[in-house]
Write the structure tokens for this entry.
Amino acid sequence: MARRNFNLLMLLPPLLFAVFAGLAWFALTRENPDELPSALIGRPAPSLAATTALGDDPAVTDADLRAPGVKLVNFWASWCGPCRAEHPVLEELAAGGRTIIGINYKDDPEKALAFLTELGDPFAATGADTTGRAGLDWGIYGVPETFVIASDGTVLLRHPGPLTRDLVDRRLKPAIASAE
């Protein structure tokens, strides 16, 4: 009997290794393991009433979210390094005719305007979320974050983190195509 218990104990380390290896494989093969799912997908986009105008532009309104065509809502800040890195991608999307609504998040308005003056302004409309209220309503947990919004104001996709050309091709374009 003692010999049988010894054989079962010998199987325990390889079995535990297999379980941990399976969990690691699952975690590493997810597209973005840090991404939290969004409760907004398939639901109407939250209000942007908490935002104010940035500079001389008119304030962003909820009507902007329901304007014709698929649009992007991008939360960004001048103090955000990844926002600076993704900016050329936003410029390309805007140059290609994509409507982008920019929400400047918890930033100094003068620094935000300087950022856009330096790098270019890809936004069709820009709002300032100086208190972070709109960011809370949208469920963001950092900047940059980008949402794809259908013509009826429904959230189709949420992407946390900076956009790259590859991500635009793999994630944004299919979401946009499904709504057009």
The chain is about 45% helix and 15% strand.
